[in-house]
Amino acid sequence: MSHHLVEARGLSFAYPDGTPALRDVSCRFTHGESVGIVGANGAGKSTLLLHLNGLLLPASGEVRIGELPVTAGTRAQIHRTVGYVFQDADDQLFMPTVEEDAAFGPLNMGLPAEEVRVRVRAALEAVGATHLAGRAPYRLSGGEKRAVAIAGVLAMSPSILVLDEPSAGLDPAARRRLIALLRSFTHTKVIATHDLDLVLDLCTRVLVMRDGQVQADGSPAAIFVDTELLCRCGLEPPLSSAKASG
User: Fold this and answer.
1) Which positions of the chain have pLDDT values less than 70?
2) What is the CATH classification number for the domain harbouring 204?
3) CA distance 151 to 99
């Protein structure tokens, strides 16, 4: 079985105060799929993503990457396969320079220094940020921070890319660059977002979540014309669909 395969089976999770966040979620993503996960605030999107590389572990059920279960003991292996880009880039950027930030993951994988340099250079070039290599991350714009955070993940050469609200706070030009970058990543992508137009641009499949459960799973074209479903799940149709029908 491909290590690109992502599967959750009967996944449930509650936060320490007892608030349920996921309720018996099952889903399966295969090699090369680009999947959007959408839903209102509190639907469980981010919590699901955090389980896909072991940042959270389920109360019941399981997550598997290929044949490998995601557990406390397999986290290091899972992190080599599943690259996670946080919603807030400041949660990922903490080194003195952009170059050091992009090198942090590969160095912690134990890779030789020369290979790390090659990976970092390629990753920064992929996101159009080579000119930022010597800059301090805190001096970057929001779009630059997002690009550098993605570069740090790409430098680890993941087979699966998981992104939480990647277009949040980006201006239109930065958003277009992000879409072009994500299109160039040909492996599996799982994207949680409120940006339904981004899903239309990038994804061949979409899961709709509500109250910690998957309400629908299908193509964006089919899901986004179901106005009753979108309304029930606290969503509005994509702007591009509204314009097309108007």
Assistant:
1) 1-3, 241-246
2) 3.40.50.300
3) 10
